[in-house]
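[recover] target loaded
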């Protein structure tokens, strides 16, 4: 697998997740792979954890992040699409971001600089998390705004 940025290394992100009440595990992979593994370890995981994220919680999160929306307004900006990859549909990216925001767990990206991990991948669309500092990163959701 090639890193999204030339010259960067590729690592497998690790996630500390609660499997059952009071029992955690450290699992490696994309959030989709972690979700599948959680369901193998605890078939009731979705009912116990995902459904606890109510619509009001999601709305509160969106409202609390409202001041950050200007950071993602690229109207009139110059940008380069594709690069070495074909275009992807935006829906899997949006779904991946929602997964990353609402699946409970503590992700870890090893020390950089020049270190990238693929944190979401579905329907030919990937989200990468790169680290350019010399210490571990552990809060991806702050970077999704």
């Amino acid at each position: 697998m090639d890193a999204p940025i030339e010259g960067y290394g590729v690592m497998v992100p690790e996630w500390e997740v609660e499997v059952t009440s009071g029992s955690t595990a450290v699992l490696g992979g994309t959030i989709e792979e972690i979700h599948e593994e959680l369901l193998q370890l605890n078939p009731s995981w979705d009912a116990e954890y995902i459904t606890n994220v109510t619509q009001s919680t999601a709305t509160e999160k969106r409202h609390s992040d409202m001041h950050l929306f200007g950071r993602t307004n690229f109207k009139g900006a110059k940008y380069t699409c594709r690069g070495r990859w074909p275009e992807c549909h935006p829906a899997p990216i949006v779904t991946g971001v929602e997964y990353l925001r609402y699946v409970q767990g503590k992700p870890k990206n090893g020390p950089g600089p020049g270190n990238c991990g693929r944190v979401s991948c579905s329907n030919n669309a990937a989200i990468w998390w790169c680290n350019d500092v010399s210490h571990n990163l552990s809060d991806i959701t702050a970077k999704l705004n």
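[recover] notes: Helices lie at 31-41, 45-49, 55-64, 90-102.
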